[in-house]
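Supplementary Methods, section 5.1.

A reviewer requested that the exact input to the structure prediction be made available. We therefore reproduce it here, unchanged from the version used in the analyses.
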Amino acid sequence: MGSLLGFGPLGLLVTAFWLWMIYDCVQHERDRTWLWLLIFLNVMGAVLYFIARYWPRTQGGGGLFGGNRLRDQLWQAEAEAKNIGKAHQFIKLGDILSQMGDRERAGTAYAQALAKEPRNTKALWGAASVALEIQDGATAQQHLATLVAVDPDFLYGDASVTYAKVLADRHEGEKAIAHLNEHFKRWSHPEAYLVLAQVHQYQGDREAAKEAIETMIMKVKSSPPYHYRKNQRYVKQGEKLLRSL
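The structure derived from this sequence is encoded token-by-token as follows.
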């Protein structure tokens, strides 16, 4: 990255901007596609993320270009939901409202979609995401439990990891462990091993916590360079947790 950015104040500012966009992406984007773009495209990815995701969200959907884009999409989605009224239309409406930061109305739209199709995975994920944003863990857990039962591989297993995190946050350790044991039969997310380790640590099982972290670190370090770079932050978190055990 040094050869791309150079050194000096300008290089430091650009690097800080890139890291800021990565941090924002980790905090707000549940789909990891943007995170991969930020890693691969570096500063170019940060600029694209700022224009497409960060600015519209912080400006209530205005965006840098075509300030009324999301507002026009909202009007269209509202009309389609009213006139057609199937689950798909309410999910589309919920997605737009979520992008605009209107969590209350987004949650209502996803609920209307679920009233029509209770096992619709996109509606379940949207409703769970809104519940997590407003810190309603019970509702998020309910929707995620249904989602992983319907499609345990949704979003390449990311929904499954999120469910484990919610279980851990709600101190349902045994459920979290049982769920993660099933999760690892399909996926090997480094974050899932960290969640497992944290649950074992909370339960006072230091050896099991160490085993989970060491397994994760071994898997990440033995993976191809791209995967290692993508998951290096989990290795650092795991090493920090190991030192505290």
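The chain has three domains: 1-58, 61-135, 152-245. These observations are discussed further in the main text.
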